[in-house]
Design goal:
heterodimer; A: mainly beta; 6-stranded mixed β-sheet; about 0% helix; B: mainly beta; 4-stranded antiparallel β-sheet; about 55% strand; globular
């Protein structure tokens, strides 16, 4: 399987809703995971499976999937959500892949 | 909760071997998978591989010929060795716990260490 594809950059007005997508063949078989990375920091898991939020992640973050596309939605984006977002997937051999990342700007 | 901390040299010469260790605290190293991921400056994430506490491994095919991941449960750490490094191996190296959900096959990485920058330069 090849690396999932993501939009390079997305912007959203403060308080509005934004969807970040990830597309790849592997996503037809395995649900994605999503990671938020702020400048100079390590990635943080924000979503896994279809729509599972780790403890401590605000409920404005939600996940979904359809066919070979996974989505991370932020409903009511906040300034602190500005970050790079990476989707993660795997293939049948257990090899892990990351999308190229989406830079989210909150206007 | 589980916390991870990478350690190792920040500078490695070309053609030499990069060696890093990730120490696990706040939880057991047993019954889990442990991963290495890297991120070149200004670029995206690249999965390197993972090891199960029992010692079985799985590597990124593009790095497999140069990578060895090992685990020492008695010392609560796992390690990465990358041989014959070049400047292309300059990156922040992260360790993370891989969680695999049986049945669905879903896996994810949580938590992550803070990362350590390794520069390959003479």
């Amino acid at each position: 399987s090849s690396e999932p594809t993501q939009d390079t950059a997305v912007s959203v007005a403060l308080g509005q809703t934004v969807r970040i997508t990830c597309q790849g063949d592997s996503l037809s078989n395995y649900d994605a995971s999503w990671y938020q990375q702020k400048p100079g920091q390590a990635p943080v898991l924000v979503m896994y499976g279809k729509d599972n939020r780790p403890s401590g992640i605000p409920d404005r973050f939600s996940g979904s999937s359809s066919g070979n596309t996974a989505s991370l939605t932020i409903t009511g984006a906040q300034a602190e959500d500005e970050a790079d977002y990476y989707c993660g997937s795997r293939d049948s051999n257990g090899h892990h892949f990351f999308g190229g990342g989406t830079k989210l700007t909150v206007l | 909760q589980v916390q991870l901390q990478e350690s190792g040299p920040g500078l490695v010469k070309p053609s030499e071997t990069l060696s890093l260790t990730c120490t696990v605290s706040g939880g057991s190293i047993s019954s889990s998978y442990w991963s290495w991921i890297r991120q070149p400056p200004g670029k995206g994430l690249e999965w390197i591989g993972y090891i199960y506490y029992s010692g079985s491994t799985n590597y990124n095919p593009s790095l497999k010929s140069r990578v060895t991941i090992s685990v020492d449960t008695s010392k609560r750490h796992f390690s990465l060795k990358l041989t014959a490094v070049t400047t292309a191996d300059t990156a922040v190296y992260y360790c993370a716990r891989r969680i695999a959900e049986t049945g669905t096959g879903i896996n994810w990485l949580d938590p992550w260490g803070q990362g350590t920058l390794v520069t390959v330069s003479s």
